[in-house]
Amino acid sequence: MVESAIVRRGFGLKELVKDDLAADYRSQLVETIRQGVHEVRAGDLTIRLAKEFGFCYGVERAVDYAYETRKRFPDRRIFLTNELIHNPRVNNKLRDMGIRFLHGSGEGDIQVEALTPEDVVIIAAFGTPVSEMDLLQQRGCVLVDATCGSVIQVWKRVEQYAREGFTAVVHGNYRHEETRATVSRATQYPSGKYVVVWDKAEAAVVCRAITDGAEPAAFLRQFEGKTSPGFDPSRDLARVGVANQTTMLSSESLEIAEMLKVATAQRYGATALGEHFRSFDTICSATQDRQDAIMDLVKKGLDLVIILGGFNSSNTNHLCEIASQFTAAYHIDDAGCILSAEEIRHKPAGRHEPVVTREWLPAKPLIIGVTAGASTPNRVIGDAIERLLACRRLSLDAICFS
Known about the structure:
Number of helices: 15
Oligomer: single chain
Helix content: 40-55%
CATH superfamily of the largest domain: 4-hydroxy-3-methylbut-2-enyl diphosphate reductase, catalytic domain
Radius of gyration: 23 Å
Strand order of the largest sheet: 13-12-16-3-2-17
Largest sheet: 6 strands, mixed
Distance between the termini: 62 Å
CATH topology of the largest domain: Cobalt-precorrin-4 Transmethylase, domain 1
CATH class of the largest domain: Alpha Beta
């Protein structure tokens, strides 16, 4: 069987799809606000837009590749390994374009074994595990690799750890597509091991296992599904290298790295630290920029903040987590979540499911912050701003651009 051709630089059709991309995702309102001082006024509302928000380079590239692929192969079956990015509008639009899904929200469309050399498969921006990539190549179909460059940099780091005999301690969500793809890079190597920690509490358990040892069965029960096969904490935590899912909360990743460094130094001594510990900050710059921007926005004083992005978007959830420490924060995935001036459907920080909150928009002069995760198109942001105005019975004509 002939292995698949892998396309990693698009098809050179960017000019042919740019108008479609603009029509589907551009917002003239947002672009105008962005060109000014990121603030508009209308009636008794002041709306402040974060300095950095929305689509990052990696997401733009992935969406562009999907549109180019449809243009290049108008009559072929096209599949995504999973949601291209974590934004419902984008993924629904791809379905409308006839692009189907192997996994994720569209799972069950087709099994990998049913793919043929005439089919085209787009690798989602989060990447895909090594085992699935191998299966896809064996099917002989055309593969379009839209994996984000920042994710690939993490893979390289984890692979280096594995080659050098270090266990990768990955700060991330072990169920997330990106983390599953990342840890699969470690197990390509005979000595490759990993453990995934969700937060500082789980990192503390790993630290105690380093300093004091751990009963393997109890450790594996606590980290069920989060370790490499055959993991033994007494053996596999002697040399550790820290990495993270690119969309995690940067400050927490840095704290976890420091916790592990201190624990390793306590166990083996500061002079031997280099033989037992590695750490590199693998949070992507776009994630960091958006986290810095929301911090800057909320510190200036807001009555509430709207955070736009898929409910399953890691980077958007962390923006909500940051904002909620300072003011009322409402994470919505689309303008339709603003049900009325009385009710909003949103996902609170730390919760898994959305809720409906009443009396969320007080009838008084308000300063409202707006930001969006890296998978959110400007059109979604613009629609949400228009919806906010409608809650005050205002139109776009009422806007005063600062």
